Amino acid sequence: MKRSFFFYALSILFLASALFDSSCTQKPRSIGSNDKIVVLADSALWREVEVDVRHAVEREMYTPQPERIFSIILKDPQDISDVGRFPHLLLLGTLDSEGSTRTLLDGMLDETLVEKIEKDSLFVFRKTDIWAKDQLLVVMVCRDVPTLLSHLQGDKDLLFRLFDDHAQMVVQTAMYKLAEQKDAEQRLMQKHGWSVRVIHDYFAAIDSTQARFVWLRRMGPQREFFVYWQPVADPSVLSKQWIIQKRDSLTKIYYQGDYIDTVKVNVVETEVDFQGRYAIRLDGVWQNEINISGGPFRSYAFYNEDDGRMYLIDCSVVAPGQRKWAYMRQLDVMAQTFRTAQSKESEAE
User: Fold this and answer.
1) Residues 204-245: pLDDT tens digits?
2) Scanning 68, 188, 200, 307, which has the fewest C-beta atoms within 10 Å of its C-beta?
3) C-beta separation of 166 from 30 below 8 A
4) What is the pTM of this model?
């Protein structure tokens, strides 16, 4: 079985240009949308790799209309000066590239790196904030086009996660620069033994120890976030079906009859690491026949060994006529700040 190699090159020599002066410590902020990836590739190479690049990064979420998480803007490498401040850049090339691609690669690759690329033990470089703050440059270079295609197909998830993780980090930084409700975070920890970092303008619609349910909301557009927990003797009950049934039972009570649409839209199940715990993540669409509405949801469910609880964290959006994924990403960022009393103590040690 072929092994996939994924390396972060932390020390790459770049050519001095009008865009980047290594002696300058102050860089401008990146400009442009966080959901766009500028792909730098010459026309001949792009004809060979376009389908696989789009398949790797232009992934869709149903909200319920399909929305791309990232969209590609294609530019020739000679136009780097026009797009050098975009937040997401992907440079594609091979060792036999010519023209402006060759010029860029020559400024990035020394003999040692070229040798590793020729052996196919290195093919991806990652560099942040090279020409602007909050920017990610990914360089994907292989010895030839067939090898590049092989990695685009076999390592597409890794390529996507590079950009997705960076977008998540940028959104988190921006969110918590604004007013953060630290008192609300402290109250949750004191009352329930867990907390999340609460963004400004969110309020607690329900905060019940008896129901083991906390519902945080923000309007304009409507964003819903809840945490449910219950003690369990058998953590093996965790499953896709358990999450769907539990969510539907809760939203029937608190969300005026919302339910997960498992017929029209596929509910995507993914096993993930959630703050060091095995978790199941579900992505799909909720419906409400009473309010004649629907939208995206994302749920995380996991067992926390320290307190013997099963947790269900859920994010959803109500925004008719609007793109919704950006709001879902904000909710997901808040979900990722979840901590228990025990994990807080571990982080403090």
Assistant:
1) 999 999 999 999 999 999 999 999 999 999 999 999 999 999
2) 200
3) no
4) 0.86
